[in-house]
Predict the structure.
Amino acid sequence: MKGRTPIYLDNNATTPVDPRVLQAMLPYLDDHFGNAASVQHAIGRQAKDACDLARQQVASLLGASPREIVFTSGATESDNLALKGLAEAHGDKRNHFITATTEHRAVRDTLLRLEKQGLKVTWLEVDREGRVAPEQVEEAITPRTLAVSLMAANNEIGTLHPIRAIGAICKRRGILLHTDAVQAASTLRLDVDEHNVDLLSLSAHKMYGPKGVGALYVRKGVRLAPLFDGGGHERGLRSGTLPVPLIASFGLACELCGKEGEADAARALALRQRLWQRLTEALDGVTLNGHATERLAGNLNVSFAGLRGEVLAVLVGESVAISSGSACTSASVEPSHVLRALGLDEEVAQGSVRLGVGRFNTEEEIDRAADTVARVVTRLREQNPLYGMRPSAGWTGAGVE
Ligand SMILES: *Cc1c(COP(=O)(O)O)cnc(C)c1O
C-alpha cells in the first residue's frame, strides 16, 4: 500500500481495497462458490453463513438489526430503491419529498425523474459552506410530505449536514428520513436510532471494499416497493442471487470501519491539515470550499485563483491522483452543480480541485503531493497573462522565470 504511484488522493471517488478485505473475498470466488439460497447442502449453507455474518457486520456499524439490511449493487441502487421504493409504496396520499440542491446525482436525478412523474420535490438551497439548516427542513414540511433525503456528507466538498437535528424534526413530524451516508460511513459513527434515520445508503467501494456492492438500511416497518421483480431475495426488496464474494468482503470492510474509523479520521484530519498548510505556505490565492470544520476529515476542496481545476488535475495526474470540481460537458467545462449551489464566483468554481485523503496515505506522500501541486499551480499561473494583473488574485511574481 505504501509508495503508490501516482500518489492516490482521490479517496472520495473510490478507495483502495484494504488487503484484509481482499482476503475475505477470495474463498468465495474459489471453493466456497455456493448460492446463498441453496441451503439444502453445505456448499450453499457456507455461502449463506457468509452473507449472514456480513449482514450482521453492516447492521452493527449502523446500530441496526440484520433484518433491516438490504444488499444492493451499490449506493446508486440504494438511493434509487429508497426514493422510488417509497414513492411507489406511498405516492398517492403523501407525495412530497424534501432534499437539497447539492445531493449526489443518484439522489438528485432520481428525484428529478419522480418530479417529472408528478411527485412534488422541495429543493432546499444550501449556504456558502454547503449546509442546510434544520429550520429550512422544518419550514418545508407540508401535510403531504413523505420523506426528507439529505446526504450525511457531500462527496465533492465534504460538508456534513446536521443529520441528527434533522432526524429529530422528522421524527417529531412523522416524516421519514433517508440519508446517503456513502462518504460519511468510513469515518463517522452513524447510529440510525440516535440520528432517527429511517433509510440509509452505503457503498462498499467508498469504505475500502470492492465495487459493485452496497446496502440500504430500511427501518423495520417502513414500506418500500422493490425496483426489481424476481426470486424474492432480500425479503422481496432486492431480487437477484447474492454476490457472496462482494458481500462477505463488504461485511468485513464495515467491521473495520467501525473499529478503525475514528483513528482513520484522526490521521486523515492531521494529513489534510498538513496538506492545506503546505499549499497555503507555498501559494497565494488558495481558498477552501465547503465548511471549515463541519466536513469529512480527509476532504480538501480548494480553489486556486488563475487556473482551471481540470487542467491542474490532468497536469499533476502522472504523480498525484486528484479530481477537479468541474465536469466536461459537450462544449465547455462547467462547474459541478455542487460548486454552483455554493454561489461561488464562476472563476473560483472553475479553479476547484478535490483532494481526498484516505486510510493508506502517508505524511511523506502528502508532502510530495503538496510540492507537486504547488509547482504546477505556479507554472500555470505564469502561463496565464491575466493572472497577477488583478489584485484579488494574489501576486505571486508571475512571469519572473
Ligand atoms: C459514490 C457515491 C454514490 C454512488 O455509489 P456507487 O456505489 O458508486 O453507485 C452515491 N452517493 C455518494 C455520496 C457517493 O459518493
